[in-house]
Design goal:
This protein has 9 helices and 9 strands. It folds into 3 domains: 2-49, GMP Synthetase, Chain A, domain 3 (2-Layer Sandwich), CATH 3.30.300.10; 66-84 and 178-299, GMP Synthetase, Chain A, domain 3, CATH 3.30.300.10; 91-175, 2-Layer Sandwich (GMP Synthetase, Chain A, domain 3), CATH 3.30.300. The chain has helices at 16-27, 52-59, 91-108, 154-163, 172-175, 196-213, 248-258, 263-269, 279-282; strands at 2-8, 30-31, 36-37, 43-49, 75-82, 115-130, 133-148, 219-226, 235-239. The termini are far apart. It is of the alpha+beta class. Helix content is 30%, strand content 23%. The strands form 4 sheets. It has a 3-stranded antiparallel β-sheet with strand order 5-8-9. Residues 1-52 form the S-adenosylmethionine synthetase N-terminal domain. It is an enzyme of class 2 (transferase). One of its GO terms (biological process) is one-carbon metabolic process.
């Protein structure tokens, strides 16, 4: 069974059941033998109209200026970046994500025909703490758990995974930084840009990445918090783990000068209302950050220069 719940404000006619079945089929859930039959499973849909009180607080029933549109929910969002990889992401997360993508690839191209759709990966890396910066020393452990058919042997699984080694990402920590940064608890998927669980997390990732890419710090965490219906954030916080080339308060000032944290302006500046090209479908697997894809506009770096 697949259950689809939520609140939405739209005039579009959406065939939720078809979308669910098409996506289950695309993932590989095509028979009861693999855990779910896309064509015959039960799909339960319970989508309701968004609360008018929330709509009023966020949109003002479409009477507000763009910069006055409020946050669709309260919460804290965190963005993180580190110079240990070209993606400015933690090495553990990069390796686990690439292993996950490879596991899907070898299943779909039949290199490992015994692999089934569900699986997960974990990579443990030994680090050296260099005055706040994290230096990878060696890969300590690689764990790959995957659903498989009943006939394959353990030896075959071990040899194939060592030679080839995918998974569908669905957990909020894997969607972000693999445990390296704090998380406010809100999921990303199924939310429009007024829901700052997603848009707020995107803008603080861009801010943190820009700080590291600009050489202002080797690691950076940016935190933002919102109140429902309020356009401006309640707070913005920066921590460079003592790796900053300039004081954190000066980096915070640069961030506030270069990034607009109001929900509607985040949506405009990151072009979050644009669909097409399976843009948001791509975020459903392999994480939302560290991706080399023009649809992931929040990965674009803004070069930040401190004032002389």
């Amino acid at each position: 069974m697949v259950m689809v719940f939520g609140e939405i404000t739209t005039k579009a006619n959406v065939n939720y059941e078809k979308i669910v079945r098409d996506n289950c089929r695309g993932i590989g859930f095509v028979s009861a033998d693999v855990g779910l039959d896309a064509d015959n499973c039960k799909v339960l849909v319970n989508i309701e109209q968004q609360s008018p009180d929330i709509a009023q607080g966020v949109h003002g029933h479409m009477t507000k200026k763009l910069e006055e549109i409020g946050a669709g929910d309260q919460g804290h969002m965190f963005g993180y970046a580190t110079d240990e990889t070209p993606e400015l992401m933690p090495l553990t997360h990069v390796l686990a994500t690439k292993l996950g993508a490879k596991l899907t690839e070898v299943r779909k191209n039949k290199t490992c025909p015994w692999v089934r759709p569900d699986g997960k990966t974990q990579v443990t890396v030994e680090y050296k703490n260099d005055n706040g910066a994290m230096i990878p020393i060696r890969v300590h452990t690689v764990l790959i758990a995957t659903q498989h058919d009943e006939t394959v042997t353990n030896d075959k699984i071990a040899s194939d995974l060592k030679e080839h080694a995918g998974l569908t990402g669905r957990k909020i920590i894997i969607d972000t930084y693999g445990g390296w940064a704090a998380h406010g608890g809100g999921a990303f998927s199924g939310k429009d840009p007024t829901k700052v669980d997603s848009s707020g997390a995107y803008i603080v990732r861009q801010a943190a990445k820009s700080v590291v890419a600009s050489g202002l710090a080797r690691r950076c965490l940016v935190q933002v918090s919102y109140a429902i219906g309020v356009p401006e954030p309640l707070s913005v916080f920066v921590d460079t783990y003592k790796t900053g080339k300039i004081p954190d308060k000066d980096i915070l000032a640069l961030i506030k000068e270069n990034f607009d944290f109001s929900p509607r302006m985040i949506a405009i500046n990151l072009d979050l209302m644009r669909g097409g090209n399976f843009r948001y479908q791509k975020t459903a697997a392999y994480g939302h950050f560290g991706r080399d894809d023009p649809d992931f506009t929040w990965e674009t770096v803004k070069m930040l220069k401190p004032k002389a």
